[in-house]
Amino acid sequence: MMTRVKICGIQKLKHAQAAVQAGTDAIGFVFANSKRQVTINQARRIAEQIPSHIKKIGVFVNSSREELETTVHQVGLDFVQLHGDESPEFCENLGLPYIKALRIQHESDLEQLKYYEGAHYFLLDSASGPHRGGNGTTFDWGLLKHQDIDRQRFILAGGLNADNVQEAIDQTQPTMVDVSSGVETDGDKDPDKINRFIKNAKERLTCHTHNRM
Ligand SMILES: O=C(O)c1ccccc1N[C@@H]1O[C@H](COP(=O)(O)O)[C@@H](O)[C@H]1O
């Protein structure tokens, strides 16, 4: 089936609409401290104008359970994407569908996966860069080559763009690819880059027979 796409760091309705028009499967709002941060009201105003089959995902770093619950309910999020030091117990006790982001630098970093068995998806991102995500840096995809990874739950992120996304999919076989920096120009989302990214990603098939999202 076709690889799914998430366009993350959406701050303007016109960019969400451009992503939907280009065929995105999901959009992401960053609630964590970031140059892409949105308020609950901003995100809700965008989310309510986007078709319900497009998944709305909120990105957080070490937020409290109360903050996560409030944001999910007020914006109408389908998933929370957790980029901080949230423990497996914290994630499980949330009672919310969650995506756990893990930062990958060495093969041993993949051992964390076994602690997040309850995750709807796990997102593998680069560990380099000053922030907990959205750094525009890749990690060594070769680290995943001989790993027994549940590809139906695997989202690839970190430094993806229209020029490297096909190679990234071919090497790692994710169910979804997630991009933020790689579809921006001068710090703002760029509809042409969004289009190219989605077109290129969707030209690549993955071997999965079904998808959980
Ligand atoms: O995008 C951000 O600003 C951000 C801030 C804090 C945590 C995660 C963030 N974004 C996520 O980071 C990865 C990689 O992004 P990039 O394509 O390398 O810029 C992606 O999952 C974003 O959703």
UniProtKB/TrEMBL annotation:
Q: What pathway does this protein act in?
A: Amino-acid biosynthesis; L-tryptophan biosynthesis; L-tryptophan from chorismate: step 3/5
A Pfam family assignment: PRAI
Q: What InterPro entries does UniProt report for this protein, alphabetically?
A: Aldolase_TIM, PRAI_dom, RibuloseP-bd_barrel, TrpF_fam
Q: Where is the N-(5'phosphoribosyl) anthranilate isomerase (PRAI) domain?
A: 5-200
UniProt keyword Iron, yes or no: no
Domain of life of the organism encoding this protein: Bacteria
Per the record, what are the reactions this protein catalyses? N-(5-phospho-beta-D-ribosyl)anthranilate = 1-(2-carboxyphenylamino)-1-deoxy-D-ribulose 5-phosphate
Matching entries from HAMAP family are given as:
PRAI
Q: Which gene encodes it?
A: trpF
One BP term from GO? L-tryptophan biosynthetic process
Q: Which UniProt keywords apply?
A: Amino-acid biosynthesis, Aromatic amino acid biosynthesis, Isomerase, Tryptophan biosynthesis
EC no. given is 5.3.1.24
Q: Does the keyword Repressor apply?
A: no
Q: Which family, according to the similarity comment? A: Belongs to the TrpF family.
Name of the featured protein: N-(5'-phosphoribosyl)anthranilate isomerase
Molecular function (GO) terms listed? phosphoribosylanthranilate isomerase activity
SUPFAM superfamilies found in the cross-reference section: Ribulose-phoshate binding barrel (SSF51366)
Q: Known PANTHER family for this protein?
A: N-(5'-PHOSPHORIBOSYL)ANTHRANILATE ISOMERASE
